[in-house]
Specification:
alpha+beta; OB fold (Dihydrolipoamide Acetyltransferase, E2P); de novo design (two linked rop proteins); 2 domains; 5-stranded mixed beta barrel; two-stranded antiparallel ribbon; 9 strands; elongated; binds zinc ion
Length: 258
Amino acid sequence: MLTKTEAVVLRSLRYRETSKIVTLYTKKFGKLNVVAKGAMLPTSKFGASLEPMSYILAVLYKKETREIQFLSQADLIKPFLNLYSNFEKMALGLSICEIVYKLIKFEEENPRIFKLIVDTLDKLNVAEKNEINLLWFFIIHILEESGFKINFVSCILCGEKLGDENLSEKIIFSSDRGGFLCSKCGAGAEAKIYYSIVTFKSLVWLERAKVESVTNLKIPSNINNEIHNLLMEYMRRHLDEPINLKSLEVFINSGRTK
Ligand SMILES: [Zn+2]
């Protein structure tokens, strides 16, 4: 059956002499592997549409019984050119693709995840400041969509609503339970790592922000490092496949985060 769907390219690998195996996140079918025959040929009809982060209209030849489908056509819907010309944007965009690739199972459709990917890449393409916020925003929301929602609302031990009156400067986050401890419960608990209350408040802000305005908040670089550590630790704890955003660490660790 020939079928059309919007898709974002997550990964693209050479296959045999002249073809590619491309992992797509499609609007209709979720994550899917497709073979693009002849995609390595200079005269290929696919052109540059199969690079990671490409937002395309894909025509698939799909059979239910097959594990891998055939891509018969791919056209760019909107080119995100800045994601390929700006090192920082590219690192962030590729991190988003890698997270989707590793977090999401094959053929589980979820149009909200599709919209989240496209909206985040689209905004990243045009953002002029604080681009890293988009990655944090993306991670918080894709975790929500895939059943790993972090609880920012109430203490995971006593259930009390978290606010200024029951939070201290240093806060404990439990990766196991996906949430924070209030100061009372935190005082009796042991933790190897404490997070700043600014980290907590930044995460709450990011969770509530709209994608259009998410880059308005300037997060200090030490807080970005804490957010990075917290989210990576949480994803490592809950995912089968390890996530090491290598492209990202280049500027997280060197303090280049703006
Ligand atoms: Zn508590």
